[in-house]
Design a protein that fits this description.
Length: about 425
Amino acid sequence: MLRTRTQYLLFFILSSTVMADTLYSSKNYLSGDWGGSRIQLHETGIDIGLTYTAEPAASLSGGYKQGDTYLHNINLEFKADMQKLFGFKNTTFLAKISSRHGDNLSEKFVVPANAENGRYIYGEYFNKSQEAFGGQTTKLVNFQFTTQITEVLSIDYGRLVMNDLFLRSDVYCNFMNNATCGSPKAVFTPYALSAYPDATMGIHMDWLIEENLNLKLGIFDGGWMEQNPNGLDWSLGENGIAAVAEAQIFFERGSLYTQQKVLKVGVNHHTGEFNDFETGAVRKGNTSLYLLSDLGIYAESGDADQGLALFGAYVYNLKDEIAGLTHFLNLGFVYKGLVSLRESDKLGLSYVFSKHSLKNSYTHDNVSGKKRVDETLLELSYNFVLPYGIEIMPDLQWIHHPNGSRDFSDVTVVGIKLNVNF
């Protein structure tokens, strides 16, 4: 299954047609500019986008048992320039719809949350081997407005995805494991931060304090886990609020892979209720502290967009009785244009260390008390960036103590991440 679903696309890897990098060109979009109609829509203030992401993956060794899964995400988005269309000065509108299908390999084969015979009940798998998971449903995601108040201050308001705005880097999704692609997973143990395709009502401010310092602040409804699955739930106050503050310190601005050097320091506090691992009682409030960095350290001669970037992330959760991951560390690099004549391809290596809360005991063979241990993940990827908005990324993962379990041997996962931008 893994091979037959993707082999018809591999011939694109052998060649790369040179195309003009213009708006909606065939270099970046499978359907191009629709005979000029797409550009005309853009000029009137409307942009429509459609992407398809698939992540077939297989467990080759270790874990609960071997198997493979195929999951996908379809993302439809609509952008509108409200000033061009309705005269609302310096304001844009964004709406996204996500449709997902398929089972995640980690919870089905690596360390199952609930095996078919009921023998193993290990709870949610945190660092999932595929990132495009999340329900068998179609749902509304973003429904938001953005207004540029001044040259240095903008606000987003409406239905927002928190990790679109905080704890993120554009280098992360050169990988397939959700430990790297997305935001550092410790901020979701418990779910004190919303991530695509989950959204919630909120407001976000981005303030350029000075040339090399951005301050980002956000307040969000904390009840996204209480919403109905179609994303049309606009209720407030279901489980407190989430407040996030992040300072971005730029030592150098420029190309992401060669020049940009930025340090991001933040705090996320959720006032809602969470279950205590030991007592089962309800506890109020959870706080996460985090530190992220992107460092472009090398540019190939004569090309400011090809070179080597390092990245790192560290998250600390203050309450180990409700946070599944108390410490989370992610380090790695992405090299853009390493191979001659493949200037847009990206080679990536990621290392993840997760310290599981010892208070989060398992239920194993209906006998509680199994303790989690530290989990380590290594991931190697190579992203082939092809014409017509197609990317094909072979991916290899090795996982030590999967989901913090001593009961399962080290796991080897192989997969392919396919992304098509229509």
